[in-house]
Amino acid sequence: MVGWIKLLLLALYLSAMLALPDSQKCSKGFNLKKGKCIDQDECEENYPEDMGLCGKNAYCVNTIGNFYCMCEKGFQTSEGSTNFTAESSLTCKAVCSIDETNHCGNGTCHIGTSGPYCACQDGFTNYGNKATRCTALDCDAFKDTWDLKENVAIAHNLLTQLKRKCEDLTKGEDPEDFDDPDLLWRLLLVIDQLLLTGALNENRKVSKFLDLVESALNLIGPFIDAGRIRRSYAHTELDLLNHKGAMPPQGVAILSTKPVTLNITLETVSGDPSLYPGFASVSLLSYANLETFTDGFFSGINPQANESFVINSKVVTVSVTNTNTSHLEEPVILTFSHLTRGNGRLHLCVFWNASNGNGSWSADGCTAVESNSEFTVCSCNHLSTFAVLMALYDVEATFELQVATWVGLSLSLICLLICILTFSLIRSIQSPRTTIHLHLCISLFVAALIFLVGISRTENQNACAVIAGLLHYFFLAAFCWMCLEGVQLFRMVILVFNTNFRTLYMMTGGYGVPAAIVAISALINPKGYGTQRYCWLNVDFIWSFLGPVCVIIAINIFFFLITAWKLAQKFSSLNPDLNTLQKIK
């Protein structure tokens, strides 16, 4: 019984299947033939009337189970695509008639045998790829470079060649010799020579040099076939990434040289997709010794009080084909290795701003997101030449040091005052030697008193300069009186008669010599007196004090050695049995 029921159900199913139309037996886009589903060629079935499927200036392309429409050469849809589906209701129009400006940029669109092409206006180029839009090309960087070329002989031919090729491109001429693999090598060799010869001895030349390097890399980059190039020379190291294709690149690129690593999005490299020229190039170029030429140009930075800077990284240039890099949507990240470790030091991310005078470092648009003793990570919203500065601060005087200074100087003043009173009032001990002691104590007393009350009085720069001059004078006077004391001791030992100085000679040596030194120093460099923190000599002017002091110390040592030698001879003649050590004692 059960078997009969199964046979009945099978018969009913087969009858129903035979009653269905053919179109419902296979999926859409397939036909049932001889019991099998075969792909339906919609394009062949409608030929030559397939114009009804895709419209004018398009043809049908069959696929398994479906079809799509392809625009003929020189045509595309209003959305910029060359293929579409029939359901989208799009049509193909001549490329040049859709949006000439969007397709060619600063050029005119034409239809040739191989499709549309762009004829660029003067000052613009598509680097020989006529199918891509025209972009601006600035050749000004290759002009007026005589002051760089005259320092390096091989630079003349290369810069002249780059200038000529750049101008040819902007006039619509076909590029030649740009596929020369040695062109990039020659550029790096010229950069090496400029760094080696010290030609970049002015910030104006540095600005011109950096502009030239960036323009040259942007000019050569589109003609490099290799996807990536890494090259290292004596004074330069280059990492270059190149992309060519119909669609703009996407993702993140990481470039690195020994001192620096760069993280940059490829969208930043190529720029606005609607302005994509068919290629994108990014390069990271580090210089071995450019920091020595650019150190000190910090006018673009507003330092805090008592703050100075020094470059603590190698200098690098980041160059991309995107011409709009003044304000990036995605910042670039640079990781710099420090030249010297600076524990607890503030590190500042900076770029070379050529528009600030003749060029200087500036921190605008760059921030340090991470920093330690070994490296600093910088984030910048624009592209240029970058470096890391280390801030230097003068050592602040602690409270304990100030207390020790006040207590020590106060005790010194008391002791010096006692000595002055003793040498001047007690007549029984007065002599030329005590006169020298008296004036030595007076000089030290006045110098210590001025130091105690005026060393930090920097509110009025003129008064501060006077205080610094007085300190300079009285400290030199103290050393001069010490020198006179050594000379007086020498005369007492060597000369038997007339061993004393005349008072006029002593006053001239003790007060006249330091007065002459201070007067000459003030005439040579009047701005050398007084600093931002203390009323003392500037660091660059300190030898006006240290020089005379070293001379005085050398004279004292000379007279001391002669005096000791003469005394040893006299003791030897008085008592021949004394040994050498006892004679010296």
Automatic annotation (TrEMBL):
GO CC, alphabetical: plasma membrane
Signal peptide: 1-19
Entry's transmembrane regions: 403-426, 438-457, 463-484, 504-525, 545-565
Occurrences of domain G-protein coupled receptors family 2 profile (ranges): 401-585
Domain annotation GAIN-B: ranges: 243-396
Protein name: Adhesion G protein-coupled receptor E2-like
Coarse class of the protein's main subcellular location: membrane
Annotated PROSITE patterns: ASX_HYDROXYL, EGF_3, EGF_CA, G_PROTEIN_RECEP_F2_4, GAIN_B
Positions of the EGF-like domain: 39-81
Pfam families to which the protein is assigned, alphabetical: 7tm_2 (PF00002), GPS (PF01825)
Membrane topology of the entry: Multi-pass membrane protein
Superkingdom in the source lineage: Eukaryota
InterPro entries linked: EGF (IPR000742), EGF-like_Ca-bd_dom (IPR001881), EGF-type_Asp/Asn_hydroxyl_site (IPR000152), EGF_Ca-bd_CS (IPR018097), GAIN_B (IPR057244), GAIN_dom_sf (IPR046338), GPCR_2-like_7TM (IPR017981), GPCR_2_ADGRE2_ADGRE5 (IPR003056)
Compartment list: Cell membrane
Lineage: Eukaryota, Metazoa, Chordata, Craniata, Vertebrata
GO BP annotations, alphabetical order: adenylate cyclase-activating G protein-coupled receptor signaling pathway; cell adhesion; cell surface receptor signaling pathway
SUPFAM superfamilies for this protein: EGF/Laminin
Keyword list, A-Z: Calcium, Cell adhesion, Cell membrane, Disulfide bond, EGF-like domain, Glycoprotein, Membrane, Repeat, Signal, Transmembrane, Transmembrane helix
GO molecular-function term, one example from the UniProt record: G protein-coupled receptor activity
